[in-house]
Structure formats: structure tokens, C-alpha cells
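Lab channel / #folding
Pinned by the channel admin:
"Please post every new chain as: sequence first, then the C-alpha cells as a reply. Keep commentary short and put observations after the output so the thread stays searchable."

First post following the new format, from NK:
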Amino acid sequence: MKIDAPNFNYQQGFEVSGSSKFFDDDGRLKRTGTLWTASAHIITAVIGSGVLALAWATAQLGWIAGPTVLFLFSFVTYYCSCLLASCYRDPVTGKRNYTYMEAVKSNLGGFKFKICGFIQYFNLAGTTIGYTIAASISMMAIKRARCFHEKGHDSPCGVSGTPFMVLFGAVEILLSQIPDFHEISWLSIVAAVMSFTYSAIGLGLGITKFAENGKIKGSLSGISVGEVTQTQKIWRSFQALGAIAFAYAYSTVLIEIEDTIKAPPSEQETMKKATLISVITTSVFYMLCGCFGYAAFGDHAPGNLLTGFGFYEPFWLVDIANIAIIVHLVGAYQVFAQPIFAFVEQTAAQYFPESKFITKEIHVPIIPGYKLNLFRVIWRSMFVCMTTVVAMLMPFFEDVVGILGAIGFWPLTVYFPIEMYIAQNKIPKWSKKWITLQSLSAACLVISVCAAAGSIAGVIKDLGVYKPFKTMH
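Reply from TO:
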């Protein structure tokens, strides 16, 4: 049902006249998202498996560069997210942009829109692969922890990740049938609680290990040459930048999250507050997990804090943390997959409007309110199967998150938000503000290129010794 748009005060974010009880100004059903649901979505997207690699990343950079880089990434993420949040509506007409790509198309035109679309959906798909890997690693860790507990810490306890990836994929096939982003708030809230749970356990174990050692491990410059070669030191430092960038990645779904928020107050006002709450919360967790993990293990901090077996006991607590990771990643997978699902399904409906296979909704009596769509069932199941197979072929956690962080950080978190802000506000070229924004963008580009190079070098090294579908130790 479509209704005429009411007179909408876009500056203040409330309907002046012609308001509807059931519909928003664009004729869609009233949005119900709040500051807290938006924050839950962001925290679900941000505090993902990336937090588990931060102790390792800090170990590569050291006590000075590690915390400094963590802080700088949090600041850049918050600042650019605020710029992006202001792109949800056209400042003149008030027209909504429902997705990140629509915002780019509206502000920057068709060519950049296509580039953005490719990078965004490649990054989203890659993140779902990374989450499949991370979930299987946690499942393997639970099995191995029990083996270590029963047979001793020196036992090989080899486990294959393949069955666990298949199990995770099967769960995601079921959850992927949830029709759209607006209907997964409950999943995000559960996932956000789980993310706090395992982050807190990881932090607590790190503090305990640090207290047990009785001293702060690590050095000002990070892992020393001797432990690794000079070349490895450089590549691993670059890779650490990618891991930290991945830990803050959520710009790809920011506009989609903003589209769930009700008004008044204006969506961008609520989104900026949600971003501030989320970035502060996650940054505190990140700083604590990264720093205490490094203080506890020094140069030998594991690539995944809760599955690298720096912690063996209490094994039940490590198991609880890994279960929380798995539950969180089940939800986070959907947060990143739903924009891909929506894009493919809307494009298919646009090109084949007469196809009943694509457009027909079938009522399912045993599930009240649920409508089955054959195209949705088949296409989404195929997507989950594809991400699962790729994860089986390349299960290198630190390298994958580094590559994804590097590829997505500059264009999606920095470049496009800055360019859209400049276009919206008609900032003159070579003005002081224009130069400042472009300098920030250029600095972040250099960081992304370095991070990508380091992570690709890591993958090449891993592929040299890895055999797919074999037992992993």
C-alpha cells in the first residue's frame, strides 16, 4: 500500500501534518527501531570475532603503536560513521536512501555507485566466510579443550573443522529464511549479549593470567626480530593493521541499520548517538582485551585469544566463552548477509516482475505470519553453501580477517562517507576543510594498502603448507 508523503520537517525529523498512524513518510510501515536496537545491531556487527585477534595484533605492534592504532581506528570509525549517517536522507528533498549503495548513487552518481556495490557486497560475503571460519574454530576448541583436560596438554588432540563448518552452515540456511533485516532485532540483541559474554571472559582470563605471571609481558616495539625475521616483522605489523580495521568494520550495514529507526527524533540524530555509544563500548573492550592479552602472553599472544590455547583452565569457562562466540556469530552472520539477500532479491524482482518463482509468496499454515518464497529459499541456501565451501578451503583466521579489514576499511568506512559529505555540503575544492578530509582519506588509503599486502603475504605462506579438509592441530 502506498500513501501520499506527508509534509515532513526533515531538519527536525518529525511529521508536521498528514501524519499516519501506521505508515512512515515514504509509505512504508512505521519503523520501530530505537537508540538501543540500533546500538545492539552495531555492537553485534562490530564486536565480532575480530576482538579475538587484538592481543595478537597488539603483540605485532608493541605497547606504543598497538593502543595508539586501536584508538585512532576507533576515532576514524566514529567520525566517518557520523558523516555516513547524515547521508540517509537527501538534505534538500528528504528522500530516504535505504541502503549504502543508494546513498552513494544519490550523492556521487552511477560509476562510483557500481564500484561501491562491488566492494560492499564482496566485503559482506567475505565477512560471512570469516565468521564461518571463526565459529568452526570455536567449536573445534571446545572439543580440543575436553581432550586436553582428559589426556593432558601435550596430547595432539587433532580435530577437523569441516564437520563444524557444515553444522554452522546448516543453522545459517534455516536462519537465512528470515525475510529481512527489520525482523532480526531479537537475533542482534541475543548476539550482542553473547559478544559481551565472551569478551568479558577473554578479558577476565587475560587479567588472571597477567596476575599469575606477576609482570607485564611484551615490549614497546612488539615482537622482536629474532623471534621472527625482519621481513616477517614488517608483514605481520601490516597484517595487524588489517586485523584491527576488521574489528571496527560495520559501515557496510550502517545505512541499513539506520533504515530501521523510527522518527522523531531524526534518524541521523539517533544513529549518531547509537554510533557513539557503540564505538565507546567496543573501544573500551578492544583496548582491554588487546592490552591485557598482550600483557599476559607477550610476543607469544595467540592469533585467537580464546581458541589459541593460551588458556587451558578452567576449561569449562573457556568452553562457555566459545559457546558464546558461536551463538554471537550465528547472529552476526545474518546481520552481514541480509543486505546481500535483499539486493539480489530486489534486483531479480526488478528484472523479472512477472516470474512467479521469484515473486510469489506462499502462506505456511504451521508458521503464523510467515510467507515462503521459492527463490528466496533456493538462492539463500546456495549462498550459505558457497560461503561454507570457501571457508573449508581457506580456514586461516588472522589472514582472512586482515584481508577483509584492509579491503573494506578505506573505501567503505572512509572514502565514500567523506566524498558524500563533501558532495552534500558542497565543500569547495582546496578549502581548509576539503584538504583536511582528503588528507584523512589518503592516510587511511596508505594503511589499507599496507594491511592488504601483509595479509595476502600471510595467506600465501599458509597455503604453502595447508591441505584442505585435513585434521587440524
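NK: The mean pLDDT is 78.
TO: also worth noting, Residues 32-463 form a domain with the Amino acid/polyamine transporter I fold (CATH 1.20.1740.10).
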